[in-house]
Automatic annotation (TrEMBL), chain A:
The keyword Ion transport does not apply. It comes from Hucho hucho. Gene3D superfamilies: Glutamine Phosphoribosylpyrophosphate, subunit 1, domain 1. GO terms for biological process: fat cell differentiation; immune system process; proteolysis involved in protein catabolic process. This is Proteasome subunit beta. It is found in: Cytoplasm; Nucleus. The active site is at T64. Component of the proteasome complex. It catalyses: Cleavage of peptide bonds with very broad specificity.
TrEMBL record, chain B:
This is Proteasome subunit beta. InterPro entries: Ntn_hydrolases_N, Proteasome_beta2, Proteasome_sua/b, Proteasome_suB-type. One of its GO terms (biological process) is proteasomal protein catabolic process. It comes from the Eukaryota. Pfam families: Proteasome (PF00227). Component of the proteasome complex. GO terms for cellular component: cytoplasm; nucleus; proteasome core complex. Non-catalytic component of the 20S core proteasome complex involved in the proteolytic degradation of most intracellular proteins. This complex plays numerous essential roles within the cell by associating with different regulatory particles. Associated with two 19S regulatory particles, forms the 26S proteasome and thus participates in the ATP-dependent degradation of ubiquitinated proteins. Component of the proteasome, a multicatalytic proteinase complex which is characterized by its ability to cleave peptides with Arg, Phe, Tyr, Leu, and Glu adjacent to the leaving group at neutral or slightly basic pH. The proteasome has an ATP-dependent proteolytic activity.
Length: 267, 166
């Protein structure tokens, strides 16, 4: 791709040549960042052998539901808190939102390790940007940084579906970034295996001119109903509201209590 | 949708061929029961009969790979919806869905269903589900046929045809 070559980015096939050539290989995603790896390492091949087809069964943590939508008064971000390893619940109160800075949030879904590592790296890069340019990074640029990190490791088995939410000079921003290096700007996203259930609820209840309380309730409802139907989502709803002067954490409520409250009103 | 009797409908989806074969087999057997015994099977009995047949074939060389919804109105018990899957599980449920569309619509049904919905509210809820499919489902499903079962029997309602995405 022309832009790819012009930007001076090394494709990972070139990196392979470097790895096989020298005794100790290096995976480089930017000049000041290197991983030392043994010769002949092949991450995606290794991960394939760990899946069910390979005989062993190490399931990465894929289960989750996260959602975010913009409306008149900012952006609502809601996530569940269940970390599953196959059918085992590794944690019931995992933190799936990373607070990058008072004006930027990142959500995590997919492999917990990948999300935590790459989003913390993004937080570091955002801080460095601010120190170098004396200006806070825009949401568009921050999401592009994360996207390019994913691009450097394409085909190597990363698993990450994240939403970058912020408020900058251009107003509220919501970007979806995933491990294929897809980057989409939009007004409503939901990720994870419970996402289809969340879409059902937030699509049918969404209005652009909602009040703040109605938007909170919609976010809560989206996660709660998704956790009700999806086995790999659960725990608590962590709800954030991105406003002009930064984000606030709205609430942290247990989904089983919420679903009982909703059922009681119904029957 | 297969009419098993005046007040029982069977919805059958799954492997091509199996669906019609199995549904017609059940349909004819329900009608045979009526002819032999002079009265119709109740929806609950019909559902259990269907499940038993599905289970009997499950471990044969020719299992039926079908997912079913059986809906009926009983004089004494009122309306009933029975969910059956290809492994021959049977559950009575207030609402149900099969297939990939279920991933999008079940949460809408969870959210807005109440046991005391009026007929118009129920059709509106169905419209909400279809709008969601029109918006998020990868396949374009241009029209849906709708039927209602009450104490008078089976009624054909207006076809639902969602128009262009927003």
């Amino acid at each position: 791709m022309a832009l790819f070559d012009v930007s001076g980015y090394k494709s990972h096939s070139e990196l392979r040549g470097q790895i096989l050539g020298t005794g100790v290989g290096h995976l480089i995603d930017r000049p000041n960042q290197q991983f030392s790896v043994p010769v002949g390492v092949d991450p995606s091949g290794f991960l394939k052998s760990c899946s069910r087809e390979g005989g062993v069964s190490i399931d990465l943590n894929h289960g989750t539901t996260t959602l975010a939508f913009t409306f008149r008064h900012g952006v609502i971000v809601a996530v569940d808190s269940r970390a599953s390893a196959g059918s085992y619940i590794a944690s019931k109160e995992a933190n799936k939102v990373i607070e990058i800075n008072p004006y930027l949030l990142g959500t995590m879904s997919g492999s917990a390790a990948d999300c935590q590592y790459w989003e913390r790296l993004l937080a570091k890069e955002c801080r460095l940007y601010k120190l170098r340019n004396k200006q806070r990074i825009s949401v568009s640029a921050a999401s592009k940084l994360l996207c390019n990190m994913m691009l450097g490791y394409r085909g190597m088995g990363l698993s990450m579906g994240s939403m970058i939410v912020g408020w900058d000079n251009k107003g509220p921003g919501l970007y979806y970034v995933d491990d294929n290096a897809t980057r989409l700007s939009g007004r409503m996203f939901s990720t994870g295996c419970g996402s289809s259930y969340a879409y059902g609820v937030i699509d049918s209840g969404y209005r652009e001119d909602m009040t703040v309380e109605e938007a909170y309730e919609l976010g809560r409802r989206g996660i709660t109903h998704a956790t009700h139907r999806d086995a790999y989502s659960g725990g608590v709803v962590n709800l954030y509201h991105m406003q002009e002067d930064g984000w606030i954490k709205v609430c942290k409520e247990d989904v089983s209590e919420l679903i009982h409250r909703y059922r009681k009103d119904m029957f | 949708m297969f009419k098993l009797s005046d007040k029982i409908l069977l919805l059958c989806v799954g492997e091509a061929g199996d669906t019609v074969q199995f549904a017609e087999y059940i349909q004819k057997n329900i009608q045979l029961y009526k002819m032999r015994n002079g009265y119709e099977l109740s929806p609950k009995a019909a559902a259990n009969f269907t499940r038993k047949n599905l289970a009997d074939y499950l471990r044969s060389r020719t299992p039926y790979h079908v997912n079913l919804l059986l809906a009926g109105f009983d004089e004494t018990d009122g309306p009933g919806l029975y969910y059956m899957d290809h492994l021959s599980a049977l559950a009575k449920a207030p609402f149900a869905a099969h297939g990939y569309g279920a991933y999008l619509t079940l949460s809408i049904l969870d959210r807005y269903y109440r046991p005391d919905l009026t007929r118009d509210e129920a059709v509106d809820l169905l419209k909400k589900c279809i709008e969601e499919l029109n918006k998020r489902f990868i396949l374009n499903l241009p029209s849906f046929s709708v039927r209602l079962i009450d104490k008078e029997g089976i009624h054909d309602l207006e076809k639902l045809m969602p128009v262009g995405a927003k």
